[in-house]
Amino acid sequence: MRKLSEVRLFLLDMDGTFYLEDKLLPGATEFLAACTQKNIPYTFLTNNSSKSGEAYIQKLAGLGVQVSPQQMFTSGDATLLYLRKNGFAKQLLLVGTPSLEEQFTAEGYQLNTAAPKAVVLGFDTGITYQKLTNLCNAVRAGLPYIATHPDFNCPVQGGYIPDIGAVIAFVQAATGRLPDVVVGKPNGLIAQMAAQRFNLPVQQLCMVGDRLYTDIALGRAGVQTALVLSGESTREDLATSEFVPDHVFKNLAEMTQALLAE
Fold it and tell me: Phi/psi at 206 (nearest 5 deg)?
């Protein structure tokens, strides 16, 4: 059995794991303190590329939790690392929010040029029909096509809004193509990029989250996984899940006790 004490970096999901809407979940701050005590780094990890890491840092600050930019890792961050690692040209068609556009521009990318060399699809909450048309035309032309993550829906207060997966399905219907690369959970690429950022082997990472089909599915990439039952998944779900976590805890409070006991 894999041990928490072997972990050299915790990847922390946020909504349903660390907080629920605007309220910290039991053990949230105690877990961070235990990581510090054990000298184990942590970074918050999210598939949502519609917001910058700074926006999440500010949200956490509003909950009384101070973290640095190094302790926040979005699928947008991971996509930028992937593009850099693989030598993509700086001319891109980017479909995303102004926040994501600013993030790419800051890294020297020229966006929505007349002759893009690749297409990056992010979660764009302000998407228009013209953006969809431009996206389909570029994909149909055969440009490399990268999506920041695969989620079909994004949870919001009172329900859900369509996420990037719905746009991927739209583009597939219009062009016959799926993305060449999807970066975010449950795909192992986001774990590989996190490992690269912290200069660690993937096997020394542990994904902590509340969703079996995204957080725990990341275990296929070789990371340890810890399921917390403070969000979406229940113990009953475990009986039928194809994704089996290395550890199961009621919440971060129980996980903190286990980490300190080791």
Answer: -135, 120
